[in-house]
């Protein structure tokens, strides 16, 4: 009988060693110093991100560091996630690294980043798989939106109440199981009855474009990295029909 003696590659998928990612990551900043900041985010190195951010802040403005270093780094993480190079542990570490840099930039400015608008995010009732939502939250935060994070397994009524309370420009829902995505049209119907015609971006492994576009307010989110662009459209005044026409079909 043969016994397994080499365990090195059993958990490769979840390994935090980012050697593969280094080979797959792209240059995302024109400035060398800002590229180093972006690289620290891609590597998920919170300490290095903090050290480099402090260094770059001696030569660059806080908003330059955020918009041209930290955010591009997180956008690259999103791409690596979409292509199956990164998994949840790497995304969480990258988000922590980005947030460490943003905190230092805010300290330098003497205030928090001005928030553009609110976006309510949640994972569908009965679904605890919030991987997609974690990425959406990180990208929206990085791009200056005030994320009202309701978490996972959120009841329909709680989502609707959050929209009434916070008046967001957009609401997002994630589902990885077909049995839970049925909550989305229920949310949309309640929002419509209340006169809250908020673009409702729905995505996740179980969710198809055909399903989301079958009910009013629904806009299909194919990839997590589309969230900031969609939120910008909603902020600019695009209604759900316009957003569906742009992002779907």
Automatic annotation (TrEMBL):
<feature type="domain" description="B12-binding">
    <location>
        <begin position="116"/>
        <end position="245"/>
    </location>
</feature>
<keyword id="KW-0170">Cobalt</keyword>
<keyword id="KW-0479">Metal-binding</keyword>
<feature type="domain" description="B12-binding N-terminal">
    <location>
        <begin position="24"/>
        <end position="117"/>
    </location>
</feature>
<dbReference type="InterPro" id="IPR036594">
    <property type="entry name" value="Meth_synthase_dom"/>
</dbReference>
<dbReference type="GO" id="GO:0046653">
    <property type="term" value="P:tetrahydrofolate metabolic process"/>
</dbReference>
<dbReference type="Pfam" id="PF02310">
    <property type="entry name" value="B12-binding"/>
</dbReference>
<protein>
    <submittedName>
        <fullName>Putative cobalamin binding protein</fullName>
    </submittedName>
</protein>
<dbReference type="Pfam" id="PF02607">
    <property type="entry name" value="B12-binding_2"/>
</dbReference>
<dbReference type="InterPro" id="IPR003759">
    <property type="entry name" value="Cbl-bd_cap"/>
</dbReference>
<dbReference type="GO" id="GO:0008705">
    <property type="term" value="F:methionine synthase activity"/>
</dbReference>
<dbReference type="GO" id="GO:0005829">
    <property type="term" value="C:cytosol"/>
</dbReference>
<dbReference type="GO" id="GO:0050667">
    <property type="term" value="P:homocysteine metabolic process"/>
</dbReference>
<dbReference type="InterPro" id="IPR006158">
    <property type="entry name" value="Cobalamin-bd"/>
</dbReference>
<dbReference type="InterPro" id="IPR050554">
    <property type="entry name" value="Met_Synthase/Corrinoid"/>
</dbReference>
<dbReference type="GO" id="GO:0031419">
    <property type="term" value="F:cobalamin binding"/>
</dbReference>
<dbReference type="GO" id="GO:0046872">
    <property type="term" value="F:metal ion binding"/>
</dbReference>
<dbReference type="InterPro" id="IPR036724">
    <property type="entry name" value="Cobalamin-bd_sf"/>
</dbReference>
């Amino acid at each position: 009988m043969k016994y397994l003696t080499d365990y090195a590659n059993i958990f490769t998928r979840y390994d935090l060693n980012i050697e593969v990612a280094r080979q797959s990551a792209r240059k995302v900043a024109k400035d060398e110093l800002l590229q180093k900041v972006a690289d620290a985010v891609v590597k998920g190195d919170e300490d290095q991100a903090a050290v480099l951010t402090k260094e770059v802040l001696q030569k660059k403005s806080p908003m330059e560091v955020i918009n041209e270093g930290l955010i591009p780094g997180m956008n690259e993480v999103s791409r690596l996630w979409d292509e199956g190079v990164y998994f949840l542990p790497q995304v969480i570490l990258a988000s922590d690294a980005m947030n460490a840099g943003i905190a230092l930039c805010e300290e330098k400015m003497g205030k928090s980043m001005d928030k553009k608008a609110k976006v309510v995010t949640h994972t569908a009732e009965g679904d605890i798989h919030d991987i997609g939502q974690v990425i959406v939250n990180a990208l929206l935060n990085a791009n200056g939106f005030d994320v009202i994070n309701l978490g996972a397994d959120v009841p329909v009524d709680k989502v609707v109440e959050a929209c009434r309370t916070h008046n967001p420009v957009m609401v997002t829902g994630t589902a990885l199981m077909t049995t839970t995505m049925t909550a989305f049209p229920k949310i949309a119907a309640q929002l419509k009855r209340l006169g809250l015609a908020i673009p409702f971006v729905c995505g996740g492994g179980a969710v198809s474009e055909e399903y989301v576009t079958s009910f009013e307010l629904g806009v299909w989110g194919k990839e997590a990295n589309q969230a900031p662009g969609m939120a910008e459209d909603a902020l600019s005044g695009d209604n759900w029909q316009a957003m569906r026409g742009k992002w779907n079909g």
